[in-house]
């Protein structure tokens, strides 16, 4: 079997101690320091800062105005314009959730409520400690019943507050306008 010996290149002393990388990082830090001391740091206007640094002064100023429209907060359930539940307990969101954060117990609908709906969730829970905020539950929902909110302030004080039940999810979600497939008489 033929083989070829490959000689490794010699590493200089500067490369051995990562001098080039260290000096490059220090240069960036010194540049930001000089801009901050001159009061010309980046994002001064957007973050409502004093120009010293690029950190937002959090309790006084928040990201609400700066959030992009594609921001994914935590998942919530929504009701229709007339206050009825949109969720039909199809459990697609539970099956597609990679973190297994959603738990649904299907229930039956009272007789005469809706003609086309056969199920509604008896229990619906989302464990926010397990949720990875991926948005797959929103994409899988055929009835537009679950949405990713624009809220980012979710601070539970204990473990039980981070498990949102059906009532809490509807409270956070509110109502949503638009066509709902299960109430479409032409479907």
Automatic annotation (TrEMBL):
PANTHER family xref list: NADH DEHYDROGENASE [UBIQUINONE] IRON-SULFUR PROTEIN 8, MITOCHONDRIAL, NADH DEHYDROGENASE UBIQUINONE IRON-SULFUR PROTEIN 8, MITOCHONDRIAL
Coiled coil: none
Source taxon at top rank: Bacteria
PROSITE patterns in alphabetical order: 4FE4S_FER_1 (PS00198), 4FE4S_FER_2 (PS51379)
Bilayer disposition of the protein: Peripheral membrane protein
Record's keyword terms, sorted: 4Fe-4S, Cell membrane, Iron, Iron-sulfur, Membrane, Metal-binding, NAD, Quinone, Repeat, Translocase, Ubiquinone
Positions that bind [4Fe-4S] cluster 1: 87, 90, 93, 141
Native source species: Akkermansia biwaensis
This protein's encoding gene: nuoI
Binding site for [4Fe-4S] cluster 2: 97, 131, 134, 137
Protein name: NADH-quinone oxidoreductase subunit I
Co-factor: note: Binds 2 [4Fe-4S] clusters per subunit.
Its job: NDH-1 shuttles electrons from NADH, via FMN and iron-sulfur (Fe-S) centers, to quinones in the respiratory chain. The immediate electron acceptor for the enzyme in this species is believed to be ubiquinone. Couples the redox reaction to proton translocation (for every two electrons transferred, four hydrogen ions are translocated across the cytoplasmic membrane), and thus conserves the redox energy in a proton gradient.
